[in-house]
């Protein structure tokens, strides 16, 4: 079930990034060809990109698809490789959990301030909440990854 959910996250993150590209292309084309702008194109593409990034981090964290510099890991034996992987997953989980907490505080402040986008007057806190949910999930899957590495049910 978790793998299906992570696959869905990959698809949604990819679609959001595709929307960012499409919105940027449409905005630039309309502006240069017709002198017309898409309302809140910059804000919407930025928020969509933020949501996609946070949910993409969750997927990459669980799958171990993040950027690695593994000089020490390459030189280690199997047991020490496992220790390094578990340590990295726990540190990632702690970092992402802290980031999720801080982002959640930003959601609360944004909702209380009634912050909206400039032209369409869309509530900003909804976008921030979607990104915060991705950060929370990223933290959770980092700890799930560490647990599964220790249990031997996930290979590094």
UniProtKB/TrEMBL annotation:
GO molecular function: transmembrane transporter activity
Keywords: Cell inner membrane, Cell membrane, Membrane, Transmembrane, Transmembrane helix, Transport
Main localization, broad class: membrane
Subcellular location: Cell inner membrane
Membrane-protein topology: Multi-pass membrane protein
Database matches in Pfam families: DctQ (PF04290)
One of the record's GO cellular component terms: plasma membrane
InterPro entries xref list: DctQ (IPR055348), TRAP_DctQ (IPR007387)
Domain Tripartite ATP-independent periplasmic transporters DctQ component, residue spans: 21-151
TM helices/strands, residue ranges: 12-34, 46-63, 84-104, 124-144
Gene Ontology BP annotations: C4-dicarboxylate transport
Domain of life from the UniProt record: Bacteria
Family statement drawn from the similarity comment of this UniProt entry: Belongs to the TRAP transporter small permease family.
UniProt xrefs under PANTHER family: 2,3-DIKETO-L-GULONATE TRAP TRANSPORTER SMALL PERMEASE PROTEIN YIAM
Biological role: Part of the tripartite ATP-independent periplasmic (TRAP) transport system.
Self-association state and partner proteins as the record states: The complex comprises the extracytoplasmic solute receptor protein and the two transmembrane proteins.
Name under which the protein is recorded: TRAP transporter small permease protein
Native source organism of the sequence: Mesorhizobium australicum
